[in-house]
Amino acid sequence: MGIPVRITFEQRGDAPRRLSLLVPMGSVVAALVFGAVFLLATGYSPLDTYSNMLSGSFATSRGVTDTLALATVLICTGVAAAFAFQMNVYNIGGEGQLYLGLIGAAWAGISLGEHLPSLVMVPLVLAVGALSGAAWIFVPAWVRSRLGTSEIVSTLLLTYVGASLVEYVIYTPGSYFRNPNTPFPQGRLVAASAKLDPFGDSRLYPTIIVSVVVAVALAWVVRRTEYGYRIKVIADSPKAAQYAGISARRTTMSVMLVSGALAGLGGALLVVGPYGKIEPSIVNLGYGYAGIVIAALARNNLAAIVVSAVLFSGLRVGGEKLQITTDTPIHIGVMLQGAILLFALGGEAFRRYRIRIVRTGVAT
Amino acid sequence: MNSNIWVLMTGDSVAIATTLVLAALGALFTERSGVLNLGVEGILLSSAVSSFLAADASGSIWLGLAVGCLVGAALAGIHGALSVVFRANQIVAGLALVIFGTGLANFLGKPVEGKPVTTTIKPLSFGALSDMPLLGPVVFGHDVVTYLALVLAVASSIYLFRTRPGLELRATGDDPATVDAQGLSVASIRIRYTLFGGVLIGLGGSWLMLAQSAAWHQAATTNGLGWIALALVVFAGWRPVRIVFGAVLFGFTLQLPFTLQAEQITVIPSAVMQMLPYLATLVAMIALSRPGSRNLLGAPRALGQPFVRDER
């Protein structure tokens, strides 16, 4: 208004490749600096906090395996979010679909008993978990593709319903999913054949391979198949897609179902891996929500999600260890996640536009 | 008769509706200007905990409310800057705000978790009126913020549909190019209403903390009210007075599980009852959707789209 300079945004024709890497990295650094200022202001030592976080996450072998163990789930929820986001469909209920994956997988793992060998059982349990996740998004997907109901709000509302469902199946006396032998409410263990063993004495399970393979395979589907091409056309221009005879309705539906299945798979991987049962504390962990941040930071690039999931999982594991070693609240990790994303979004502008400060001379 | 649980419950529904009305009005002003702020839940949590800290330290409710409003404005300011100045994806920016706000609230709230709220907002006293059967608790049993929220809803309606600035606000959300051609700054209007929306949401969060909660507790304080508020704006067709009716209805479904539990009616498990408000919201949302109903409902046409003059 009274300022004699104007900031102009010039659209870049093609974003330079180095910026695609520089912007996410820059936002991580900016968020860490912001976090340091915030820690100082609230009376904690940023240096101690960060070095403790680092040694808990990336600097020790225990830290690395713990980080990768958490990344196993986060890759799934990240890919789930990104797969939908790339078509401008915002499934932000991955959290709830993850709960259902947990319930579905536990159901399969308990009810199929010990009749099947592990080689059949584990894939079956994972499949049931993924299907349960897809089932949980079915109604939002259906009404979104038929009636245009906002999937943002509907998938989120169902997350709260899912959380109550987890509590219901664990805390109700006599529930099928509840361990009948413990007085304290706990999940019933799945059959031994539905459980995998961790690597050595670590907390890392072979399920990490499933996550990475799924992420890479879907990246290939998006880049190389006709289905992936359809998604891209609809994302770029729904009108053009219509003229080309691509049914946005059917593609939206299928993309959302796949997205729900991926989040459900994340829950199932927890069952065959570390949990072996329904762990009711899952509703406080926010693995599904983290997937949104991971997807956004990787700019919905499915292969890049592996990297951003490992980074985030490191932040989180480091934050959790912090709680044990110092009195700094664990939530600094969550705050940093949000801050990284906010900086990344701001940084996007520098990638997409050439920003110039122009002197207008006359104050208007 | 006033001790009748159902009467008390209706009174409580009106009370719980206060946060919903304030948060939904905040979202409504923001959205009317064309900015979609999905960060309501994060703002509610952050303002709740900061109002608690301020009120606890100073012993003043008003300072608590003021700090809550300021925090609301500050977080909304981040969203405004990203959406309007940096033209970021507003959906992702809003979600980032939810995550950031949740982390911030839990970080700040950790030292005081479980500490009871000592400085609370008390209901106004209307003398004999408050003791009236039925009407007493339902109409005259509330505090100043609840009445303020209702007055605000009516005032917003008049402001939006009967005044010049209200017309400019609606036009900015519907057709920013025309507003720009009139010589008004789209960016400035959007930033201002995003900030104002943040203040209202912040007030809602602080009120929830200082009037409704026994103590700060990370998971249970807002419980998704921010998302229900966003859905409420959709049903209300972006009209302020309709928000009040919707909010009371949802206040009722939110309150129902507690009332049934108090009455020891256990036909329906409490976990199922807890799902009710969310399921009711979902069903109502679906019922209101028809192909192409976005405009029928009155959604601002440029909602969520950054305004770029140079590209036109």
Question: Considering DSSP H and I runs of 4 or more, what fraction of the residues of chain B is helical?
Answer: 55-70%
Q: Which class of secondary structure composition applies to the elements of chain B?
A: mainly alpha
Q: Please, how many helices of chain A?
A: 13
Silhouette of chain B: globular
Through-space gap between termini of chain B? 65 Å
Distance separating the two termini of chain A: 6 Å
What composes the largest sheet of chain B? Answer: none
Task: Assess the beta-strand content of chain B as a share of residues.
Answer: under 5%
What is the percentage of strand-forming residues of chain A?
A: under 5%
How many H/I helices of chain B? 13
Number of domains of chain B: 1
- Portion in helices of chain A: 55-70%
For this structure, the CATH topology of chain B is ABC transporter involved in vitamin B12 uptake, BtuC
Polypeptide structure, described:
- The complex is a heterodimer of chains A (364) and B (312).
- Chain A is mainly alpha-helical.
- Chain A has a domain at 72-302.
- Chain A contains 13 helices and 2 strands; from the N terminus they run E-H-H-H-H-H-H-H-H-H-H-H-H-H-E.
- In chain A, strands 1-2 form a two-stranded antiparallel ribbon.
- The model of chain A has no long low-confidence stretch (mean pLDDT 88).
- Chain B is an all-alpha fold and 312 residues long.
- In chain B, helix 11 runs antiparallel to helix 12 (270-288).
- The mean pLDDT of chain B is 84.
Q: Topology, please?
A:
The complex is a heterodimer of chains A (364) and B (312).
Chain A: E1 5-11, H1 17-41, H2 46-57, H3 61-85, H4 94-111, H5 118-147, H6 151-171, H7 207-224, H8 226-236, H9 238-243, H10 248-275, H11 287-297, H12 304-325, H13 332-352, E2 353-359
Antiparallel strand pairs in A: 1-2
Chain B: H1 5-32, H2 40-58, H3 61-85, H4 90-109, H5 135-139, H6 144-162, H7 164-174, H8 176-181, H9 186-212, H10 225-235, H11 240-262, H12 270-288, H13 293-297
